[in-house]
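Ticket #351: bound-state structure for phosphoric acid mono(formamide)ester.
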Amino acid sequence: MPTTTWNRHHILSLADFTPIEYDTVLKTAASFREVLSRRTKKVPALQGQVVANLFFEPSTRTRSSFELAAKRLSADTLNFTSATSSMTKGETILDTAKTYLAMGCDIMVIRHKEAGVPNAIASELDRLGERVSVLNAGDGQHEHPSQGLLDLFTICTLIDPLEPRLELLQGKKIAIVGDILHSRVARSNIWSLTASGAEVHLAAPPTLLPKWFADFVNDEDITGEGEAVAKEVFVPSPIPKRKLFIHWNLEPALRDADFVMTLRLQKERMTANLLPSLREYHQLFGITRSQIKHCQPHVKVLHPGPVNRGVEISSDLMDDPEFSLIQTQVTSGVAVRMALLYLIGSGKATG
Ligand code: CP
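RESOLUTION: The complex was predicted; output attached.
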């Protein structure tokens, strides 16, 4: 089992992740990927610990891969879905969390449609002096750190399967395309990919970019191509310089890109008519074979899932293993989530 130092108790956001932490996750996930290739895919790392998956919002990949990851580490798992819980009888979120605490839970993996719920539960556990860790499995439009880390792992292992590390992405061009406004995945990926020294290019219609991105762009930053360019953005962080470019059309973002991440149109989070039609959106921002001709010949396409086929990506491209990393992302998810549970769980055992 990997030996490493890790001091973070909760994993709630990638905003303040350090390069050492990214590399620790990548290295640990690589060692668990090796475990998952063995005949016996299980290690006793978290034997006796209880991992509770508290999903207040639907999920296929995140919930199942956290459950499988916990089982591969020999932890006991509890699965909660709000629709079949006592929340239907009026129990609050905090009382639900405290119920799992009373059962001896060591790690809570939490997804909620509102931003900030995992942070609120983590703060309450800290206030109570409990040593239970919280892992954010996606909160509203805020963050999805484990998805950001598995995307990072997927890309880095493609470049160096044996030694995935942050520096491999230095100078790479990565386009993130689509519904950035509603995407917690985009927010986590922006933190991790800009931390690596990659050039991150966002492409979306102005209605699907967060307002503060639009506020950041001055008129003089808009080129003749309708391309808005912004550099060295963001709040103070351990990583001083981040390269982020913003485009209101697709082609400049795709030009010579090494990787393209396309995002699901989050129709369930749209409260206003932000798009003329799905057909027009696909024509302007859909990733297709003809669009990826603007990219490097070795370009790979990622999508966090679930996918609206034929909207954000054409169905044939999604299923083409020459270009699509979508299935690899799901596979990476188990190793990365094993790494995260191991890093916060084994620290608990020895601390
Ligand atoms: N990518 C992702 O979070 O997928 P699920 O909603 O299926 O967990």
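RESOLUTION NOTES: The first helix runs from residue 19 to 36.
TICKET STATUS: resolved
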